[in-house]
Amino acid sequence: MSTTTSETHVEHEGHEGHDHGLSDVGYIKVALLLAVLTAVEVSTYYVDFGPFFIPVLLILMVVKFFIVASYFMHLKFDSKIFTWMFYMGLFLAVGVYAAFLATFKFFLAS
Amino acid sequence: MADVAVHAPAAGHDDHAHGHHTSTGLSNNKLAMWLLLGSECLLFGGLISTYMLYRGRVGTGPTPDQIYDIPFTSVSSFVLLMSSLTMVLAVSASARDDQRNTNLWLTVTALLGATFVGGQVYEFTAFYKEGLGFTTSLFGSSFYTLTGFHGTHVLVGIIMLMTLVVMNNKNKIVGQKSEVVEMVGLYWHFVDVVWIVIFTLVYLIPS
């Protein structure tokens, strides 16, 4: 089993949820990607994206969220049970509060 | 969840974060942490939704566009984002049983978190001086409640990180050390992902 810091550690293959994730270099690359995405987000404050302004921001937000959850929180490498537990809470929250906001005609007002 | 030795001899693994002696074969502590984080989604979902609903209700107070300092908040967001990197490096060092680097990265993470909280205190003070108090308007109440709750979570995370460093130095961590670091890491990353959402929905998308 590899213990170097320059390659992905995948231990006990075929045993679901038992990988260690990326190497340190891999995590730094992910962080750089997140930094670039954040820079693009902030650029929307200075550059006019027209009708794409809100969709671009929402897409970037979702992409950053899933990158952190998948790589830094190890959901991509860990047991799928953890993924289910987290995303069930998340999707329940999104569903409940989308309904809540719709009740108050938030989306019509927007 | 009952601790049953179902997976004890499975695949001949030791108990090093693999083949836990539980009915699921997974760490009960980790399951509990993910369950907590799933439920935290509901807490922050409620706070964010309330803010979205009330951000236009400014009364006689300042509007979001008048007081938000996007360049400043962008920098503090970047600091928090990078603290996730240092946290994952601490988890990685801990998995390698590298105590020195574990403590180093945990401390750097705590410092970055403290920088973020310091920025938030500065921001709150500036907003207050500009006329936005907690009871000035529904916008003010919902804004301070949401960001204050998040800031409190970061503060709790910093306390957890520093406690971990002290306990690690004294070799007083009970159980699998790398798993304890990983769980504090999960909490920290969650605080980061919540801020990713808050930064976009609260600060970048205008009312």
Question: Would you write up a description of this structure?
Answer:
- The complex is a heterodimer of chains A (110) and B (207).
- By secondary structure, chain A is an all-alpha fold.
- Chain A has helices at 24-46, 53-72, 80-103, 106-109.
- Chain A has two domains: 20-77; 79-110.
- Chain A has four helices and no strands.
- The longest helix of chain A has 24 residues, at 80-103.
- Residues 1-18 of chain A have low confidence and may be disordered.
- Chain B is mainly alpha-helical and 207 residues long.
- Chain B contains six helices and no strands.
- In chain B, helix 1 packs parallel to helix 6, helix 3 packs antiparallel against helix 4 and helix 3 (70-95) runs antiparallel to helix 6 (177-204).
- Chains A and B meet through helix 1, helix 2 and helix 3 of A and helix 1, helix 3 and helix 6 of B.
Shape of chain B: elongated
Mean pLDDT of chain B: 87
Q: What portion of the residues of chain A fall into strands of 2 or more residues? A: under 5%
Question: What integer is the average pLDDT of chain A?
Answer: 81
Return the domain count of chain A: 2
Low-confidence stretches of chain B: 1-18
| Computed structural class of chain A | mainly alpha
What does the radius of gyration of chain B come to?
20 Å
Segments of chain A where pLDDT lies below 50 for 5+ residues? 1-18
For the largest beta-sheet of chain A, the strand count, sense and barrel status come to:
none
Straight-line N-to-C gap of chain A: 54 Å
Tell me the major beta sheet of chain B.
none
| Rg calculated over all Cα atoms of chain A | 18 Å
Number of strands of chain A: 0
Shape of chain A: flat
User: CA-to-CA gap between the ends of chain B?
Assistant: 46 Å
Number of helices of chain B: 6
Helix tally of chain A?
A: 4
Q: Beta fraction of the residues of chain B?
A: under 5%
- H/E element string of chain A? HHHH
